[in-house]
């Protein structure tokens, strides 16, 4: 059960890192300033959310998980 929880958490964290990395490439790809700002804000927020979900699953649902959820909110 512990290995399954670690695998699910790793998938969420890898997806979060991929989302943040795509935001970096989007910053260089788009031409206009507003498009760059939108890409950075949206992808970074979604990447942070996925990473925090992965950390919450990995650590277990306790007081630490509540603090991580409050960070995203």
Name its key features.
89% helix; 73 residues; mainly alpha
Describe the structure.
The radius of gyration is 14 Å and the shape is elongated. By secondary structure, it is mainly α. It has helices spanning 2-29, 33-59, 63-72.
Structural shape: elongated
Radius of gyration: 14 Å
Q: What share of residues is helical?
A: over 70%
So how many helices?
3
DSSP E strands, number:
0
Strand content: under 5%
Distance between the termini: 29 Å
What's this model, at a glance?
The chain is mainly α.
Q: What is the topology?
A:
Layout: H1 2-29, H2 33-59, H3 63-72
């Amino acid at each position: 059960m512990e290995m399954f929880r670690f695998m699910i958490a790793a998938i969420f964290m890898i997806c979060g890192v991929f989302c943040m990395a795509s935001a970096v490439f989007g910053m260089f790809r788009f031409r206009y300033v507003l498009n760059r700002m939108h890409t950075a804000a949206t992808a970074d927020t979604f990447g942070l959310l996925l990473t925090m979900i992965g950390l919450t699953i990995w650590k277990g649902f306790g007081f630490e998980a509540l603090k991580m959820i409050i960070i995203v909110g």
